[in-house]
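The protein record passed on below.

***
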Amino acid sequence: MRSKLNQDLKVSIKARDQRKVSTLRLILAAIKDRDIAARGEDRCDGISDDEILQILGKMSKQRDESLRLYEEAGRLDLAEQEREEKGIILSYLPRQMSADEIKGICDEVVSEMGADSLKDMGKCMGALKERYAGKMDFSKASAIVRKRLQQA
């Protein structure tokens, strides 16, 4: 993942695609920050691809929030810039699951774990994050699991 980002940065620089260059530099800077933090935890090899996917997911959500704020403020030029950056970020993430897919998987994991109360929420969410990192919106999944466990 890291090498693909670096390679795409080089291609974007040569193509003089300023938006993509700046977005890829932001992504690589975030990864480098997390690498530095990981060194403090005695992980010399840096962060994994799953952690890179988490960074990209977080950056995408940040763009959503900024986009909403810019549109409310009438700054359509900045909103368009955020929309373009989000598109670039999303191109590096796996296809995101639909709401129906998330619901089905959450129901499956709750049953599989034998969860029957809110005390089991962490166990269920841990399993989901382990299996579906970068592919699922965990805030939606959390709401679905919580609702399912409250009904149990």
Summary: Residues 2-90 form a domain with the Hypothetical Protein Yqey; Chain: A; domain1 fold (CATH 1.10.1510.10). The two ends are 40 Å apart (CA to CA). The chain has a mean pLDDT of 89. The chain has two domains: 2-90, 99-151.
